[in-house]
Amino acid sequence: MNVHVDEDQLVTTKFAIGQPVLRTEDPILVRGLGQYTDDVSLDGQVYGAVARSPHAHGRILAIDVEAARAMPGVLAVYTGRDLAHYGPLTCKLPLDNRDGSPMRKPLRPALPLDRVRFVGDPVAFVVATSESAAHDAAEAVTLDIDPLPVVIEARDAVASDAPQLYDDVAGNVALDYHSGDSKKVALAFSSAAHVTRLNLVNSRIVINAMEPRAALADFNAPSGRFTLYVPTQGVIGSRATLAEILKMPASEIRVVAVNVGGSFGMKGAIFPEYICALHAARELGRPVKWTDRRSESFVSDHHGRDHEFLCELALDADGKFLAVRANGFGNLGAYLSPFSPMIPTINIVKHLNSCYAVPLIEVNTRCVFTNTSPIAAYRGAGRPEGNYYMERLIDLAAHETGVDPAELRRRNHIRPDQIPYRSASGMTYDSGDFPGVLADALKLADWDGYGARHAESAKRGLLRGRGIGQFLEVTAPIMQELGGVKFESDGTITLFTGTHDHGQGHAASFAQIVSEKLGAPFDKIRLMQTDSDLLKAGTGTGGSKSLISSGTAFFYASDKVIEKGRAIASHFLEASAADIVFEAGRFTIAGTDRSLSLMEIAARLAAGAVVPEGCPDSLDVDHINDPAPPTFPNGCHICEVEIDPQTGAAEVVAYSMVGDFGTIVNPMIVDGQLHGGVVQGIGQCLMERTVYSDDGQLGSGSYMDYAMPRADDAPFFRASFHPTRATTNPLGTKGCGEAGCAGAMTSVMNAVVDALRPLGVSRIDMPATPHRIWSAIRAAGAPG
């Protein structure tokens, strides 16, 4: 029997939504052909270097730059006075204190005028004809700084005798945040059959993106336009912020970011060095390149996490949750970053109740300044933290009440028949099967077979523990996003959108959506996110929202392409548009075999085909999607660790995860995102330790001092999906970029505590380093 095979249909199916399509950017990147900021060079460029404060706190008495200016090759040295006419770096979050007064937002100039507030604070910018000359001159800048007392920990910063970082920020408290009904929560705790309390530290992380921060600034005097090449999470947002700081129209600024080697939230901000480079480019009339050195990155990049909370969970006699409460501190570092106050406040509220039917939530957070590197978003930005606090509480409550930890979670899950569910956080969950996700995870991890594995570890003298980390995330708000589709004369299609890829695999995923909708060849679809001059809108990448926002924009843009194509096809096929049907990339007169493919129409138009007046003369579309509700990705991770009680060394030996990410466009990319997030979570849990001395010196300022996870620190992962379709976007998809961290931080630490609990250890904080574990074992009285 002869079977006709439609090759176009095979191609469309191969690259359709749900297929594990290889990332289209990888062949370029693995061959070293990517273009990162430091790879860009312009004619006549010169080089910048930064002189930084060696003091964590002090008054600037004088900055002597004369010796630096006189050095060979030096073109200029700038200090705060030279840049004082620019606007400050700001935080625009509209947050209020518990008394209704606005959050305190001290302004940060590009270079300080009166005081330094952390080691690494930039105080001068040197420009020279070579990079080495610039760095030599930066070391020659002499600082006369009157040292002031230093405070490192958030808890210490609110003490009555603590050093004050700002004259107009009493007690170093930028924000005294409160959410919840205190009276109702207090009543729930007073009537509870059992209350679990746990002090938890979410430790500070040095973000350590693979590509350091960099900038190449150029100024075109005749046009009055700046061009800034910079690693960023979104060129449109960066342009808007720069326009405010530089006090000029956004149309006079171009931001370009081709490839970005990781960000995790840190590169979403505008940094002082970028303003310095732009200023120098205009003053000198030459392009200025600045690239951070790794030793400087440790002290000058924004850091992540750094919160401390007393967490409490109230339960009734049946183990049902009555209320959850968190009181604590969020360390802001020395300056406000764009999102830092949101992380230990709003995002803790949104995520503390996770996937559980908790009637009441209260969060009290004091966000305080300290003499440390500023804190910013780090993979999850409060989402993993909120889930971490809840899951650690649940495991301890299970131990204290004698209930199996899986069973205690089951008793309190929001059930599928309760969805849509209005949570105590104020969010309405539109989808989810939380009991089903847990059941799948327990099966995948062979929960019932754990006893044999535990016994086998014991035979080798090792402690074995297991931990559950169930989580739910609220993705970032979906703002306006561009979905542009342009049919090029060479037969390719260019997609335009304002999110930005820095490791997420956007090119393949967005192409899959458009390929399936339009029946267009996957390998003909390109992506443009990198040049602000070519984009009409965009909110950047962050908060696990890119596929939802850009994907939805491309979904609706494709519908508009089809409508335009139907009108054009009606002309070419000489039929009424009402009689034209579109399927699998072809426009066909209903009931006939007369048809044209979308790409054939595009080719005719490119060749100059004439269409009548009133008929579209192009298939191109610029669609700007309206804001939409967030999504609620969720999952359950189960980790098993082994600990050597003689050394305190912990190893993750088994790891299983089940995720609900709604419609999965590309499972291969989702797997990769999960693996990367889990490894970052393992790093925070077991080894990454940021250490400041009492005088504010960073003691973990290099890879010799700051441990990063390597391949042999992670096991082989077992992963599966339990999808429920989101109802808030037409694709039905949910975010996944931060889910790995959300599941790992909790499951790993719960496993560590589970392993140590038989020895009398009931609490340990991140990072659970060998020394910290060994010390906890000895402190609990275990034999040495």
Write the layout of secondary structure elements.
Layout: H1 7-14, H2 26-30, E1 46-52, E2 58-64, H3 66-69, E3 74-79, E4 115-116, E5 122-128, H4 131-140, E6 142-147, H5 154-157, E7 173-179, H6 182-190, E8 194-206, E9 214-220, E10 225-229, H7 235-246, E11 253-256, H8 272-284, E12 288-291, H9 294-300, E13 303-315, E14 321-333, H10 346-352, E15 361-369, H11 383-401, H12 405-412, E16 421-422, E17 428-429, H13 434-444, H14 450-459, E18 463-472, E19 481-487, E20 493-496, H15 506-518, E21 525-528, H16 546-572, E22 580-583, E23 586-589, E24 595-597, H17 598-606, E25 621-625, E26 634-643, E27 650-660, H18 667-686, E28 717-721, H19 739-756, H20 770-779
Parallel strand pairs: 1-12, 10-11, 14-15, 20-21, 27-28
Antiparallel strand pairs: 1-5, 2-4, 2-6, 3-5, 7-15, 8-13, 9-10, 9-12, 13-14, 16-17, 18-26, 19-20, 19-25, 22-23, 23-24, 26-27
Helix pairs in contact: 10-11, 11-19, 15-16, 18-19
Note down, in words, how this protein is organized.
- This protein has 784 residues and is an alpha+beta fold.
- Among the domains are: 7-33 and 477-625, Aldehyde oxidase/xanthine dehydrogenase, molybdopterin binding domain (Aldehyde Oxidoreductase, domain 4, 2-Layer Sandwich); 209-300, Aldehyde oxidase/xanthine dehydrogenase, molybdopterin binding domain (Aldehyde Oxidoreductase, domain 4); 430-475 and 631-784, Aldehyde Oxidoreductase, domain 4, CATH 3.30.365.10.
- Helices cover 29% and strands 23% of the residues.
- The strands form seven sheets. Strands 3-5-1-12-9-10-11 form a seven-stranded mixed sheet, with helices on both faces. It has a five-stranded mixed sheet with strand order 7-15-14-13-8. A four-stranded mixed sheet has the order 18-26-27-28, sandwiched between helices.
- It is globular, with a radius of gyration of 28 Å.
- It starts with 6 loop residues before the first helix and ends in a 5-residue tail after the last helix.
- The model is unreliable at 1-7 (pLDDT under 50).
